[in-house]
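Figure 3 (text version): structure tokens given as input.
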């Protein structure tokens, strides 16, 4: 069983920055990837970024490329999402997730169906 706790959300002005963190605890037989998703009011949950836990290979949604950076600390078993140049359309609840399924392409981890464990989310609000 794996537990995930997100933190670091808040309210910022457009153009500002936030750094989200997600601490994972518990034991799992295989932890292949961790990802960030977000859900805005009235919209479906969408992929933001993912990282291969062992090698650090990353993937990003087109909407956040060049602005967001996903990283991990193996010692802390924690994944981060550095968000720069924030826009009002980035406003959403951000969720951290863990995948226990192996796949040879990072594209697989852009779908929420790839993930088995989810955090409860942290609110990010960007004012114009």
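Below: residues designed for each position.
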């Amino acid at each position: 069983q794996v537990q995930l706790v997100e933190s670091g959300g808040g309210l910022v002005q457009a153009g500002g920055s936030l750094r989200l963190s997600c601490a994972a605890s518990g034991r799992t037989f295989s932890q292949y990837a961790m990802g960030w998703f977000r859900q805005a009011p009235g919209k479906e949950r969408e992929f933001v970024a993912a990282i291969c836990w062992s090698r650090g290979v990353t993937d990003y949604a087109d909407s956040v490329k060049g602005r967001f950076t996903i990283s991990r600390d193996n010692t802390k078993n924690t994944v981060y999402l550095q968000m720069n140049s924030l826009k009002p359309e980035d406003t959403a609840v951000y969720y951290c997730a863990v995948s226990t399924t192996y796949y040879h392409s990072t594209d697989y981890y852009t779908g929420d169906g790839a993930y088995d464990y989810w955090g409860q989310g942290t609110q990010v609000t960007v004012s114009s």
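The CA atoms of residues 83 and 92 lie 13 Å apart.
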